[in-house]
Amino acid sequence: MQTSFTRRHALGLLTIVGTLSVTAPVHAVDSGAQARTFVHEFGNKLVAIVNNDISLSQKKQQIEPLLDQNVDVDAIGRYCIGRYWRVATPEQQTHYLQLFHQVLVNAITDKIGDYRGVSFTVGQSAPSGDDIAVSTVINRPGQPPANTEWVISNSTGSPKVVDVVGEGASLRLTQRQDYSSYIARNGGNVDALLHALTRQLANHH
Amino acid sequence: MRAETGSNSSSPRPSPLPCRPALRLAGAFMGLLALAGCATPPPKDPDALAEYKEANDRYEKLNRKAFGITMWANKYTLRPVAKAYIWAVPRPLRNSFGSLYQTMNEPVVFFNDVGAGKPRRAGDAFVRWCINMTVGLGGLIDVANYAGYKHHDNDAGLTLATWGVPSGPYLFLPALGPSSFRDGLGYGIDVGLSPWNYVPRGYGLLTFNWAYNIMGTINGMATNVDALDQVMKDSLDPYATIRSAYQQQRKAQAAAIKADHRATVPDWYSNR
Predict the structure, then answer these.
(1) For labelling alongside B168, which of A55, A149, B33, B141 has CA 20 to 30 A away?
(2) Which of B10, B51, B251 has its CB closest to that of A168?
(3) A38 lies in which domain range?
(4) Which CATH number does the domain housing residue A59 bear?
(5) Does the distance separating the beta carbons of A145 and B10 come in below 8 Å?
(6) What's the 3-state SS for B207-219?
(7) Does residue A4 lie within any of the structural domains?
(8) What are the C-alpha distances in Å from A187 to residues A84, A181, A190, B29, B47?
(9) Is the predicted ipTM greater than 0.95, yes or no?
């Protein structure tokens, strides 16, 4: 009895493992390739705008819709506020996401600045939790190449960027520590963060 | 503080303040001693506790003080000097100084590569040292880079990490920047591994050693001043941002060293 049970178990396990090992890599290859294509296309569009011979404000205008399409800003925002998302009232949540959206767009367009001659290469992809991390190397003239990883999520039904990892540091995780530390030091008050973000946006040029 | 050589400081990451052995160990260990009995007790709320553990910053109060003093001092001393240096010295020359500084730190990288049991990396560091110290005029020209021997950073904190030594709580050391118990100890080991600290007195080389360290510090700050300014401006809590970025980056660096299983035989040989 004991043996047959174990044998049946073992057989069942084998079947499961067998199916998994057949299906899993195929799935991984598919979504990996999809994520790489996505990064390639999104990157090309971004680089085309950055390298274009237009004014900075025009660049910003063109980049914003591109970010809306390809970056899951709401998901990043929820991640960045961490445990305080549940503490916040629905009004605070909506207000926060609005502010965060602008902060993120400003942060990205500030970085892009007056760059010209940017190029990038797409490298390998690897699973990162439920998402897929695609590695790229970004080259800017006169600067050492930057290894940057793009974390792509399919949770909204289409691939979208949910994190950028530069030299090992995840932007959303670093941001979350910044925000949560700020809220914690202001007595756990979410409004303190909203005020600070409003101030930040007002001071932005 | 690592040997901040500037070769891979291109990312948006906030870079640690570049400082050099000139400031020395004594400060680091004084800091370690002062820590005894200053720990913040962990919070009770489970979410807050998870956050506390993630930050790994038991000495936050003291660290924040050190951070405040360092940033204040930096604003009025090193930062203006670095800004003036950027203004006065053209970029190619600054790159050359950076490369010189990097080359002369190569022995430390080499010993640590050996310690981490990574022969290929050790070989790269060794060849870089030999080529750059001769053909590269002491490192002013990074010839080894053109020959395919790219620079990589390593330090004793990372070597200890590859041995499985846990980082211990986070530390912000006055003037030295973000660190941890393990990395602080590693810094002390690195000072011991650098041949320049064994130069006998009275050879004129001691002057060189001082010049080298001061130049390295200013050059390192010049490389990172914009990134640091941006963190100070954009973060709501720059202390927490730097802490997080530093911890993530150190983890990634140690993982990258561990995952480097390249063969010792160079590509040009095995590809023939």
Answers:
(1) A149
(2) B251
(3) 29-201
(4) 3.10.450.710
(5) yes
(6) HHHHHHHHHHHHH
(7) no
(8) 12, 10, 9, 34, 15
(9) no
